[in-house]
Amino acid sequence: MDAEIIAIGSELLTPYRQDTNSLYLTEQLNQLGVEVTFKDVVGDKLEHLKQVVQTALGRADIIMLMGGLGPTEDDLTREAVSAALEAPLVRDPQQVEALQKRFAQRGLPMSDNNLKQADVIAGATVLPNRNGSAPGQWIAGTYDGREKTLLLLPGPPHELQPLFEEQCLERLRMRLPPQFIATRQLKVAMMPESQCDARIAPIYAKYPLVQTTILAHGGEIQIHLRSRAASAQAAQQRVDQLAEEIEEELDDAIFSRQGESLEQIVGYYLQMRSATLAVAESCTGGLIGERLTSVSGSSRYFAGGALVYSNEMKTKLAEVPKKLIQEHGAVSAEVALAMAEGIRKRCGATWGLAVTGIAGPTGGTPEKPVGLVYHAVSNGEASDVVERRFPGDRERVRRWASQQALDLLRRKLM
Amino acid sequence: MDAEIIAIGSELLTPYRQDTNSLYLTEQLNQLGVEVTFKDVVGDKLEHLKQVVQTALGRADIIMLMGGLGPTEDDLTREAVSAALEAPLVRDPQQVEALQKRFAQRGLPMSDNNLKQADVIAGATVLPNRNGSAPGQWIAGTYDGREKTLLLLPGPPHELQPLFEEQCLERLRMRLPPQFIATRQLKVAMMPESQCDARIAPIYAKYPLVQTTILAHGGEIQIHLRSRAASAQAAQQRVDQLAEEIEEELDDAIFSRQGESLEQIVGYYLQMRSATLAVAESCTGGLIGERLTSVSGSSRYFAGGALVYSNEMKTKLAEVPKKLIQEHGAVSAEVALAMAEGIRKRCGATWGLAVTGIAGPTGGTPEKPVGLVYHAVSNGEASDVVERRFPGDRERVRRWASQQALDLLRRKLM
Questions:
Q1: Residues of A whose CB is below 8 A from B261
Q2: Which of A150-159, B104-113, B218-227, B352-361 has the lowest mean pLDDT?
Q3: What pTM does this model have?
C-alpha cells in the first residue's frame, strides 16, 4: 500500500515555514506497513488543490490531506476534495450544533463563516477534533475501480496528532493486511560518517530484509533499522540480529541502543554510580549545561557549573591558577584539566568536565587555529584530556565540542 | 512567473529527513519576483520522477529539481528529465575529462558508474559544481508552446547554494521581467501572537501591495514584510512606510528592525554602553549563556556566569544568602534578585541577570506550579524582577524563560 501526503497552505510555500506533520505521519504510516511515495505542498487555491488531489487519486492508495479546514475563505480543502471526487458537500446539522455549542461555551459570537466547518463530503465520516473547531473527515470508497482512502486532517500538529491516533490509526489498520514492523535505533558518537558506513556496510548488506538508514549530524550518527514481517517475532528477530552484529563491530562507539540522547546516557551512568557532575565551559558558553539540564530529573546528578569565557573568570570561578594560563595559554590541555579539577572541587562534585577552545570565526592564530578545542574530565584521581580540531563555523564547532566532552565523560563512566 | 520545486531522494520520504533546500530556493526566487506555487518530494524511481516532471511542465514556468545527480543507480534525475522532455542524453567528452581529472587529483580510481555524471540532456548548459562531482544542468526552451526553464541542481546544500548563486541567479534574472523586491523584518518579544496581530492587522490591511507574514515561536514574533514594484525605490518606500506604522503601534515591544536576534541586540546595547554582563541560571541550565555566546565577539561584553541548579550552588557560586532561600524558597523573586546581584559582584560585571523557576514536568507544587519562573536583573543601583507562569513542556518553559530574561535586560538597557 502506498500513501501520498499533501500539505495545504500558502504559508508553506514561503521561505519561513515548513511542513513538519509529514514526518510524523510517515512514521505512523510506516509502522502500519504503508510506504509514502509522494509528498506535495500546495497553496490555498482551489484549482491547484483540486489538481493535486486528482493526481494523487491516480497514483496512491491512501491520501492524507493536512490543513485548509478552517473557517476562512482561504480554507478550501473540503471544496477541492468534493470537486475532485465529484461528491457534493452537505452541511451536517449535528456539526452545526457542535460548532454553536463550542462558541457558546467560550462566550464568543459565531460568524457565518464558521458554518463552512460543518460541511461534509457526501459519504464521509466526520472525525471530531477535541483540540480545535475544524473536524477531520474520513472517506473510503472506490475511485476509477480502485479502493482509495482519503483523510482530511487539521493542520496544527497539536490537533492533527491526537485526532490521527485516536480516530484514524485503528480505522487504517482494519483496512490494511496484517503486518508487523520492528525497529531499532543505535547511536554512535564522534565517528566520521564514512568510517562508520565502511565498517557496517558489509554487515547490513547481508540483511536485505532490514531497511538500514544512516543519518549523521553534529558529531552523532543514528543507525535506523526497520523490518517488516508476517509475525511480530520474525520482524523483531531480524532487526535484533542485525543490531547485535553492528554492536559487535562498533563496540563502545555505540552509546545508545534504544534511541536515548547522549546527555540522557551520561545521566544514567552518573545516577548508577551515585555520582555528581560539575562543568566549566569556555567556548561552549553554556551548551553543555543546557544539554545536561534538558533532561528532566537532571538535578539528581548535575551539581552546577561555571561559564568562564575570560581568563579572569577561569581563575575566579574555576580556580585555574593564573600562572598556568600565562604559561600555556587559555586554550591548552593544561588549562582544560585545571578547569575540570577546579570546578569539581568548587562544586563538591564527583566529576568535573571542562571545555576550552576557539569557536571562531575570529580569535585564531597559526599555532592555535579556529576549531582547536581541549576537552577534559577529572574525578580527582583519574583525569583525561582530548584535543580536537573541528572544521566548520562557530555553531558547528560548539556543537561538536559539547558532543566530544559528553562522550569523553561517558567513556570514563563506562 | 511561477516556479515548482522538486526534491528528489527516497530518504526524503522517510520520517528522518526533510528537504530544507526548498526554503533557501524559495527565498532566492521570491527576491527575483518569482512565486513558488508547488513543492514536491519524490523518491528515486524513474517512473515517479518522470511523472512529476511532466506534471510540473504542465503548470510551472520555472522547474527546480534538486538531487539525484550522483553516480549511483538510484540517481535518475537526468534520465527522468530526458524522458519527460523527450530529449536524448548525450555523454559530454569535456565532462568525462573533468571527472577523470577530479579522480586523478584525489588519487582515487574512477568506476564506470561515475561516467553517468557526464551525461547531459541535449540542449542543456552544464553548470560546473566546484564542491562536488555532479555538475548541474540548465535547460531553457519551449515546451507545448510555452517558455520553460528547468534547473537540475545537486542535493547537498553546500553544493547547491554556491552553484545556484554563481551560475543560476544571473541567468534567471535575465529571463525575467525586471522587478524590484523590498523586504523588512521586525521582531517582537514576549507578546501573544493574537494580541500582536489584533494590534497590527488594521495597519497592514491598508497596504494590500505589501505581503505581511507573521510567525511566532518561543516567545518571539517575526513580522515579515515584502513588496514588489517596478522600481527599487517604490518597493522600499512601501515596506518602510508600513514598517514605520507598525513600529509606532508596537513601540518598544519591537526589539529588532533588521532581523537581528535578541541576543545580538542585547550585545549591541551592552557594547554601546561599554557594559559587561554576568548570568546566574537555575532552570535554564546554561541556555541563556549559550544564546549570548552564540554571537561571535560576545567575549567583549559577556563576563561569565554560573549554573546554579541546587540551593547549595546558589549560595556557593552566586552568593545567595542561605537564609533567603530558607525564608522564600529557591523559586522566588527575592532569590532571583539575590542571584542577579550576587553573580554581578562575583564576576565584577556591570549587569547581573538571573533566572530561577520550575521547568517541569516534575517539581511543581500547588503554590509553585510547573512553569513558574522568576527573572531578575541588577546593576547594583537599579534592579527589576518579572514573575511569569509559562504553559507547555520543559523545553518550552526553558526557551520562554531565556527569552523573558534577555528581554528584561534589553528593556533595562534601552
A1: none
A2: B104-113
A3: 0.86
pLDDT class for A197, splitting at 50, 70, 90? confident
In A, minimum Cα distance to B19 occurs at A18
Task: Considering only the C-alpha atoms of chain B, give the largest distance between any 2 of them, rounded to a whole number of Å.
Answer: 83
Q: What is the pLDDT of residues A246-304, one digit of tens each?
A: 999 999 999 999 889 999 999 999 999 999 999 999 999 999 999 999 999 999 999 99
Interface ipTM: 0.85
Contacting residues for A27 by C-beta, under 8 A, at least 6 apart? B15
Residue B214 bridge partners (DSSP): B223
Residue B241: other Cβ atoms inside 10 A: 15
Contact A216, B156 (CB under 8 A): no
Residue A300 three-state SS: helix
Q: Which residues of A touch B316 (CB under 8 A)?
A: 304, 346-347
The runs of H, that is alpha helices, within A92-229 are 93-105, 157-163, 169-175, 193-204
Q: Which three cell numbers stand for residue A354?
A: 571542562
State CA A268 to chain mean position distance: 21
Domains of chain B (ranges; CATH) run 2-175 (3.40.980.10), 180-256 (3.30.70.2860), 262-413 (3.90.950.20)
Give the pLDDT score at A131: 87
Per-residue pLDDT tens over the stretch A219-235: 999 999 999 888 889 99
d(CA B114, CA B82): 18
B27 to chain A: closest CA residue: A15
What is the C-alpha separation between B330 and B374, in angstroms, rounded? 10
Task: Test B213 with A14 for CB contact under 8 angstroms.
Answer: yes
Task: Report the distance separating Cα B207 and Cα B225, nearest Å.
Answer: 10
CB contact under 8 A, A307 and B310: no
Alpha helices in A35-180 (DSSP H): 46-57, 77-85, 93-105, 157-163, 169-175
